[in-house]
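[job 0412] stage=fold_complex status=start
inputs:
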Amino acid sequence: MSQNPEAVVRGFFAEMSTKGCLLSSVRNWCADECRWENTGLPTAESKAAMLAMMQGFIDGYQLDHIAVDMPSIAVSGNKVLTERVDHLNKADGSTVVSLPLAGVLEVRDGKIVRWADYFDPRPFLPT
Amino acid sequence: MHDSVDKGVSQNPEAVVRGFFAEMSTPGGLISSVQNWCADACRWENSGMRTAEDKTQMLVMMQRLVDRYQLDRLGVDLPSIAVNGDKVLTERVDHLIRTDGSTVFSVPLTGVLEVRAGKVERWSDYFDPRPFLSA
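[job 0412] stage=fold_complex status=done
writing structure:
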């Protein structure tokens, strides 16, 4: 696997877009101490917490994969800044919700150590 | 704010974005920062809010924010910035500050600015909009 930060981020999102690969994408591309921050939602403070949170999304939305459109990406050192539209898809290909967002991923030694996404969280919050 | 001396520098996308935020952080500089650094056709997009489709609409929207919060300036922390061509991606904390120096609230966000010919042509910020939507 490449150590290059942009290649790591692209690899991570490519695996996440693959059917049934949400948990494996976290296992394969994130460091044990990775932080996963989402505006308005609790932060996952480690890979174990990330996996539990991802499993919660899978169970809560019958989520199968996340198709990622990425209109913008720019790199500064070990930080990769992305503008994206994430499509949360079920196994039958239907979309639960599409989120326009921007996110920062930090990569060290070929692993993601911080994944911070900024977006309007209201689709995930109780009304 | 940017005179003819640094016009050469201000064509650079990162320098334009830094100049724009520097002016926005200056007391009373919110309206002039839009006037001086944004193209006439600039789009201003904010998560969960209406998009301003040109500079005229941006100025109306900025004036509305100024009036609603007695806003004087935006203190901008910029922990991350990265450039790809004419796009400048920023991770920021924007502090909405009143004339008396008090902070209305602080917004953690990530934003994309596109610069052409030394002017901001698109300013898209992604954040949790709930503080702006409450009464």
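[job 0412] summary: Residues 1-8 of chain B have pLDDT under 50 and may be disordered.
[job 0412] exit 0
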